[in-house]
Every structure is written in C-alpha cells, then in structure tokens.
Design brief:
Chain lengths: ~425, ~230
C-alpha cells in the first residue's frame, strides 16, 4: 500500500465518523493550543520584565537594603530603616569613585493623590534632584524636585504623565495643590505641583507614568511612625549611574566596601546589583514560570493523546471485520499497521494544525489585553509551535501504534465470520 | 495445481479438541471447477480457509504448484492471497461506505498495481455492473453485492477463486446468475474455482463434486460434462 493510499484510507475513515473524529481531535486542539498560548504568556511575562528592567535606564547599579540571603523587603520606610539611608547616597557621590556619573536615592510607598474633584491611587517615589539625570527621564512641563526642596523638606510634587490628566482633566496642573493621603488615610499632606513628567510609554514606562515624585525627605520625617530615630532619611534604593564603559564590577566592589565601612558591619547589610544581575534573576524567575505553564499545557496534550489512543482502540475493535476483509484481499500485517498509524497520525496532525491556529489566534487576542489590571504581553515562539506539533505527531504515532499492533493480531477467519 | 496430503486441522477448545479436518488428501488441477458439499460442521469452510492460505493445517502438507505454502511466513502468504487467490463469501464481505468501484480496487491497492481505476471498471463490466460502479453496498441488491465481490475476487487475475456458499444468501434465480458468472470464469479464462454449497442445483454447475463428513472427504465424483476442462 502506498503512502497516498494510506492517507486516503485514513481520511475516509476520519470522515466516516465525523463527530467522533472531531471530539478526538478536540483533545489535541486544546492541548496544542494551550501549549502555544501558555508559552506565549510565559515568554510575554519574561519580555515584560526584561523590558521594564532595561527601561530603568542603561548603565545603572542599584543598592538595596537586606542581605544576599535574607532579603529585607522594603515595606514602607520601616524595613529600610536600619540599613540604607539618604546620606549613604551622598557618601557614594562624594567618595570620588571613578566611573560614577551620578547618584540618586529613592523610597516608594503607596498613597492616594487627591484634588478637590479627583482621587487617584498612586505610588509615591520619594527621591532626589539627581533622579532625572540618573534615570534618564525628562519633563514635559515645569521642573523636577530641586536640591533645595530635598534639603528643606519642601512639599513640591512632580506628576507622572498619566497621573496629571487624571488629577487635572481640565486645568493646567502646574502650581495646583495635590493632597497625598498616606498610611491608609492616617496622614495627609498638601503638595504644590512643580512639574509633569514626559510620558515614558512602552511596556516599561507604563508603570512609571502612573507615579508621583516628591522630595525623599519631605514626607518621612513628618510622620512619626516611619521616622528614623537617628534623624536620617531612609531609602529603599540607591541608583548609581555609571559612565559609559565603566567597570561595573569594580564600582560594585568599591561601593560595597564604602557602605560596609559606613555601616560598620562585617557582612554587607545591603545588596549591590547591576542591571545584568536583575535581568539574570528576572529571567530565571520567568523561565521557571514558562516551564511551569508549559508543563501544565504538556499534560493536557498527553491527556489528548490518551484520548486518541482510546478512540483508536475502539475503532480497531469496531472494525475487526473490515480488517479481516482487507487481509483476505491481500493486505499484509504492515499494511494494516500503516493504515491505523496513518489514521491516528492524520487525526493528530489535523488536530495539531487547528490547535496551532487556535493557539496563535488566542495568543494574539490576549496580547495587549488588560487582565487583572495588568496588560498582558504575549510572545508567540516559533519553537513552541514546533514542540506542540512534534508532540502531536509523537502522540499520533504512539497512540496509533498500539491499536495498530492489536489490529494485526486479528485472525482474518474469525474476523470474517464476525457478522 | 493444488495438492493436499494428510491435512488435519484440530481446534483446541475448552471443551476439548475439535477435529475439523481429518487426514484430507486432495488434488485439484488448474482450470477445474470443484463443488464441495456436506453437512454443517463437516469442515468445508475449514478446508476453504486452508486452501486460501487464511489458515494453516495442524499437520499434513499443502502444496501449491509444488511449493509447500502451508509453512510459508505470514507476509508471503498474504502476498499470495492478494496475487493468486480471489475470495467470495456467503455474506459478500464488502466494506461499508465504499462504492462498488472502490471495493473492486481494494486488492489492487495492496498489490500496488498501477491503473487501478481502469482495471476495476473492467472487472465490474465483466460482472455486468458497469452502471452500478458508484453505488455503495447499501444501495445494491444481494445479487449485485455478490457480483461486486466476484469482481473484486477476479480483478487481480487470480488463478484460484474460493467461493464459500456464494449463493447462500441469494434467491434461486439470482443464485443461478452468480453461478453462471463463475462458470464463465472457468470456461473462458481458465480460472480454477472451488465452491462450497448446500444446494445440489448449485453444485451441478461444477463438473466435480466432493462430499465431506466429519472432516473427511467421503465422496469425489467427476461427472462427464459438456464443458471441456482445460489444464
Ligand atoms: N475457530 C474454531 N474453533 C473451534 N472450533 C472450530 C473453529 N472453527 C471451526 N470449528 C469447528 O470445526 C468444525 C468445522 O467447521 P466448518 O466451519 O469448517 O464447518 P462447515 O462445514 O463450513 O459448516 P457450515 O456448512 O455450517 O458452514 C465445526 O465443528 C466447527 O465447530
Ligand atoms: Mg461454512
């Protein structure tokens, strides 16, 4: 029997039992499409994280509180209290370490920004004047927080590009008053708008556009329950901008030595991370995510394959007589094997093809959609289609082989007598 | 052409051994038309299955043109079935949802014969079903279905057609038509036909009649006939 004949016979058998074939293929369609979609989601998450880290600005080194092992999560100002303070940033800047082009520090906390008419949930970035230069951001109007604002704990605020029109849909924001409600409404401060950031856009800037910026010192020292008893200003991160082609590893070492000396500790109570470190950590996390999602999808593909095998076994049992007739007219055992394997394979490949279409379609539709407040990014990987297809073909081969082997064991005489 | 020597077939069942064939000796020459008669359970079908290489004898030898085919491997026997034998069964044994033309093409698919359509159409013409080529079994009468089965058996140019009660499910008149068709194959194309039947009127088409009882051939009669036997 030629391959063309085998495929023709397979297609006829599939067409003869349309509903059953469709339901069988459905298992594979779901399996293949979920492999493609879930891998696209996993890869999209990885891309989003990577872009966000890249979007922080190039040539950055970050200093964060906590040790390499136990990470002291920065919860408000409190967690950071013991380890990292604004004067650390000043010290780094003044140490004259070659290759450092700028230092800024920041502390983040959630707050509500309130005007007479509007009320927006936002993230407040308490930072210094250097932020603009270090992070490579720019303003669309007004100016950023000045060094004077920082030293005098001035109540100046700069609005993110997305926040400004939310708070001031009609008026010009500059010079207006914004109240920040902190600690779940326990304290409120009035700020004067001095600037509006230029939109960052893209997947990395979307988040930054929704921030507001105030002097790092302004809020903290006014609130009793977060105030550092030593009078220092706590920060959750120090950003160090390095000169192009500077030796980041050397700078990391020097910064580490300096801060250990300042903190008077034998083991660092902070972490110094380059952008590459962050990227490495983030992609390790999202790789794990991709593998997890992929395995879930893989399981559904295997379940689909078992469905095909089940149907093929039923099909062999139902077609004992057909097998007997074919053998009587000269079909050899391997012709029968070929027939059933081809049938399973065809079913799986058709299922795989439809599944690929559905999966790619779903991934495209999902991309850019807001899901649970987050914009989904999906990246369709050609290799995920390849894997899904290869698995579908493998499933077809395996789930066709055993039933086909059973089919050859059919005794033609018994089969023919089987009315 | 066919020579069986001391062929026995024993089935081992839960209730004990069933001797379906006991020490059967048989010689059939090319171009002969042989009818086998006998009571139900006398071993007729068992004999046919062995002749058709669908089954193997428990003991004894089956030589086809001097070649011991009873001991050939399955794949060779399958090839032989496809190339040299045609089968016609009481229950037609056509595949569902296939046109008459496709049924007849089936053996050719396994033979990898080119020009299948044409050969199949020719075979249908020979059995007088040219106008039913695209009908499925459910759209054909019993006699027509049996003629499709005969077309399928002769499309490979077999040397031997084995027909197990080919008229068993047909009325007398249709049965006679089918028998005439088989007779023509013997007369005009020199094909050897071995046929099982319960009806004397059907057996009368054949020149030689075997009678079986309890797995043995108890009678072998060759009638003088108008028809010439070639080979
Ligand atoms: N697979 C089998 N297992 C056990 N016994 C069998 C098997 N096939 C046939 N037999 C037995 O062998 C004997 C001969 O059977 P066979 O089918 O050859 O009879 P037959 O002459 O064709 O009968 P009928 O005219 O009813 O078709 C019977 O007793 C039958 O029960
Ligand atoms: Mg019988």
């Amino acid at each position: 029997m030629s391959l063309v004949d085998a495929v023709r016979i397979a297609l006829r058998a599939i067409a003869a039992n349309r509903l059953r074939s469709a339901l069988t293929a459905l298992g594979l369609i779901i399996g293949v499409s979920s492999v493609i979609v879930l891998i696209a989601v996993g890869q999209g998450a990885q891309k989003g994280v990577t872009e966000r880290i890249r979007g922080l600005g190039t040539n950055l080194i970050f200093v964060r509180p906590g040790t390499a092992q136990g990470t002291a999560q920065t919860q408000g100002a409190r967690g950071a209290a013991m380890t990292l303070v604004a004067s650390d940033a000043d010290a780094i800047e003044q140490a004259g370490i070659p290759g450092i082009a700028g230092v800024s520090s920041q502390i983040n906390f959630p707050a509500q920004a309130i005007t007479s008419a509007q009320n927006v949930n936002t993230t407040v970035i308490g930072t210094t004047a250097n932020y603009v230069d270090v992070r490579g951001v720019s303003l669309s109007s007004g100016s950023f927080i000045s060094p004077t604002d920082v030293s005098t704990r001035g109540l100046a605020i700069v609005l993110g590009a997305a926040v400004a029109p939310q708070l001031f849909p009609e008026e010009e924001p500059l010079g207006q008053t914004v109240r920040l409600s902190l600690g779940g409404g326990r304290v409120t401060f009035q700020f004067r708008v001095v600037g509006v950031m230029a939109p960052r856009g893209g997947s990395s800037g979307g988040l930054e556009d929704s921030y507001v910026y105030v002097p790092v010192s302004s809020v903290q020292n006014r609130i009793a329950f977060v105030r550092n008893p030593t009078g220092q200003v706590n920060v959750s991160q120090i950003d160090i901008k390095t000169a192009p082609k500077a030796d980041q590893a050397l700078i990391k070492d020097q910064v580490t030595a300096l801060l250990m000396q300042r903190h008077n500790v034998a083991e660092p109570d902070f972490r110094v991370l380059s952008q590459d470190d962050l990227l490495g950590a983030a992609s390790a996390v999202s790789l794990t995510l991709s593998i997890l999602l992929g395995s879930v999808a893989g399981i559904s593909l295997i379940v689909g394959g078992i469905g095909v095998m089940n149907i093929m076994l039923v099909s062999v049992a139902e077609r004992i007589r057909e097998i007997g007739i074919r053998r009587a007219v000269g079909a050899q055992a391997n012709d029968i094997v070929k027939q059933f394997v081809t049938e399973a394979l065809t079913l799986c490949l058709v299922g795989g093809l439809i599944g690929t279409g559905v999966g790619v379609g779903a991934a495209v539709l999902l991309g850019g959609r807001a899901v649970a407040g987050q914009t989904m990014t999906t990246v369709i990987q050609p290799w995920s289609i390849g894997i899904a297809f290869a698995v579908a073909a493998g499933v077809g081969l395996i789930s066709g082989s055993y039933p086909a082997y059973r089919a050859t064991a059919v005794d033609p005489i018994t089969a023919l007598r089987n009315e | 052409m066919i020579r069986l020597e001391g062929v026995t077939k024993t089935y081992l069942t839960g209730a004990g051994a069933v001797h379906a064939l006991r020490d059967v000796d048989l010689e059939v020459r090319a171009g002969e038309f042989v009818a086998i008669m006998g009571q139900s359970g006398s071993g007729k079908s068992t004999l046919m299955n062995i002749l058709g290489c669908l089954d193997r004898p428990t003991s004894g030898t089956y030589r086809l043109d001097g070649r011991d085919v009873g001991r050939l491997p399955d794949s060779v026997r399958a090839k032989l079935r496809g190339a040299a034998f045609g089968f016609v069964f009481q229950s037609y044994n056509l595949l569902p949802r296939m046109s008459a033309l496709e049924q007849v093409e089936l053996p050719l698919i396994y033979q990898r014969v080119p020009n299948r359509r044409h050969l199949a159409a020719e075979a249908l013409v020979r059995v007088g079903l040219a106008d039913r080529a695209h009908h499925q079994p459910t759209q054909l009468s019993g006699g027509q279905q049996q003629r499709v089965a005969i077309a399928r058996s002769l499309v490979v140019n077999p040397r031997l057609i084995l027909a197990d009660e080919p008229t068993g499910a047909l009325d007398t008149k249709t049965g006679q038509e089918v028998m005439q068709l088989l007779t023509d194959l013997v007369d005009q194309r020199g094909i050897t036909v071995v046929l099982v039947t319960h009806e004397q009127s059907v057996a009368d088409f054949a020149r030689r009649t075997l009678r079986m009882r309890d797995g043995m051939i108890v009678e072998d009669v060759v009638r003088p006939s108008l028809r010439a036997v070639s080979g």
